[in-house]
Amino acid sequence: MDKGNLSDVSEFVLLGLCHSWTMQVLFLLIFLMIYLIIVFGNIAIMILIIMDSHLHSPMYFLLANLSFVDMLLSSVTTPKMITDFLRENKTISFGGCMCQILFVHFVGGSEMVLLVVMAYDRYVAICKPLHYSTIMSLQKCIGLVATSWTIGFVHAMSQMVVIVQLPFCGPREIDSFFCEIPLVIKLACIDSYNLGILMNADSGILAMTCFILLLISYTYILQTVHQNSKTGASKALSTCTAHITVVVLFFGPCIFIYVWPLNVTWVDKFLAVFYSVVTPLLNPTIYTLRNKEMQNTMKRFRSCSIHLKGNI
C-alpha cells in the first residue's frame, strides 16, 4: 500500500495549553521571554567556554555541548508553541509533526546520554584524579559526545520507522502543544494499545538505563567524597550537586511520561513544558550560578568590556 492509501490526514490540530485568549496572550509573553533567555543564555555559555582558555577542560567542553543540546531541544517545540498562541487554528502538517517527533527524540536521547558522559567525567575527576588528564583526553571527549549523538539518532529512527507507517484516516486533534508519540499513536486507525506500550518501552529503556548509570556514578562519587574530605573533592562535589539537580529536573518528567505515565492531560502538558522549556532554562542558570570558574570568567569579560568602553 502506498502512503495515500495508508493516511488521509495531511495535518493535525494542536489544542495547545489552554483555550482562553487572555491566558494565551499571557503565555505568549512568558514563553517568548523564556525562549529568548534560553537561546542567548546558552549561546553566552558556549562563547565564554570557547573564548576563555581557563575553561578549556573536559568538563567545560561537555558543558558547552549540553548548552547546545538544550538550545536545540527547546527550539524544536517552543517557537511553534509561541506562534500558535497568536492563531485560532493551531495546525501542523503531517511532515512537520513527524519532524517534531524525530528531533525531540533525537535531541532528547542525545541529552540523556550526554548527562551520563558528564557523570562519568566527574567520576574520573573525583575517583581517579591522577589519571584524569589521560582518561578524559580531547579525543576521548569528542568520541563520547559523538556516541551520545549516535545513540540519540538510532533511538529517534527506531521510533520514526514505526510512526511514519501508521495509517491516519480520521481523528487529528492532539491535546498538547506539539506532537508527542503517545498522543499521535492514539490517532492511528488501528488498535494502538500494544503499540503504545512498545513505543513507550523503547523510550523508557533508554531513559531508565541512563538514569540507573547516573545513579551508580554519583553513588561512587558520593562514597569517594565521604571518604576523602580534601578541598579538591569538596570542590568537585559542588559541581556534582549541580549535575544531580539537572539530572532530576530532566529525567523526572521523562520517566513520568514514558515509564510511568499518569494519563492526566494537564499533568502531561505540565511535564512536557517542563522538560522542553523549563529545564533548558534552568541548566545554564544552575551551572553558571553554582560554578565559581564561570562566575570569574563572566567578571573578566565584564571588566574587559568596561575597559574597552572607557578607551573608546
Written overview of the protein:
With 312 residues, the protein is mainly α. The chain has one domain: Up-down Bundle (Rhopdopsin 7-helix transmembrane proteins). The chain is built from 11 helices and 3 strands, in the order αβααβαααβααααα. It has helices at 3-6, 21-51, 58-84, 94-127, 132-135, 138-163, 181-185, 193-227, 231-259, 265-289, 292-311, and strands at residues 11-14, 91-93, 173-174. Strands 2-1-3 form a 3-stranded mixed beta sheet. The protein starts with a helix and ends with a helix.
Average predicted confidence as pLDDT: 83
- Which geometry do the CA atoms define? globular
> What's the arrangement of strands in the largest beta sheet?
2-1-3
What's the number of extended β-strand segments?
Answer: 3
Fill in the keyword field for this structure.
globular; 3-stranded mixed β-sheet; disordered N terminus; 3 strands; mainly alpha; Rhopdopsin 7-helix transmembrane proteins; 312 residues
Brief synopsis:
With 312 residues, this protein is mainly α.
Helices and strands, with pairings:
Elements: H1 3-6, E1 11-14, H2 21-51, H3 58-84, E2 91-93, H4 94-127, H5 132-135, H6 138-163, E3 173-174, H7 181-185, H8 193-227, H9 231-259, H10 265-289, H11 292-311
Parallel strand pairs: 1-3
Antiparallel strand pairs: 1-2
Helix pairs in contact: 2-3, 2-10, 3-4, 3-10, 4-6, 4-8, 4-9, 8-9, 9-10
